[in-house]
Amino acid sequence: MMATSQFHNVARSLSTSVARSKLIKTPVQVFGIDGRYATAVYSAAMKSKHLEAVEKELTDFQVAFKKDPRLKDYFLNPSLSRSAKTNDMKQVATKLNLTASTAN
């Protein structure tokens, strides 16, 4: 039982180390689920050389989210399915011509 547990831990660390090694380090180290998403977006934006555009697009969305109660209510509404929200965001991203890093 102990050998199986140790093997599982080694296998898991090997599988995540490759993905982490491909990410670009952020200027500020962040943690948790939010940190993982922030690091992934930062890494994708840096690799595609669209960091400023992604920052502007995310800032614009944040402002719209705070100012428009309908937008906020839509995304916080638990009765709407995740797939419906995802499809709607894809359509919005296409209409606004967002960069691939932001749209993803």
UniProtKB/TrEMBL annotation:
Compartment list: Membrane
GO cellular component term of the entry, any: membrane
InterPro entries (UniProt xref): ATP_synth_OSCP/delta_N_sf (IPR026015), ATPase_OSCP/dsu (IPR000711)
Keywords (A to Z) from UniProt: ATP synthesis, Hydrogen ion transport, Ion transport, Membrane, Transport
Record Pfam families: OSCP
GO MF annotation: an example: proton-transporting ATP synthase activity, rotational mechanism
Keyword Transport part of the UniProt annotation: yes
UniProt record similarity statement: Belongs to the ATPase delta chain family.
PANTHER family for the chain: ATP SYNTHASE DELTA CHAIN (PTHR11910)
Descriptive protein name: Oligomycin sensitivity conferral protein
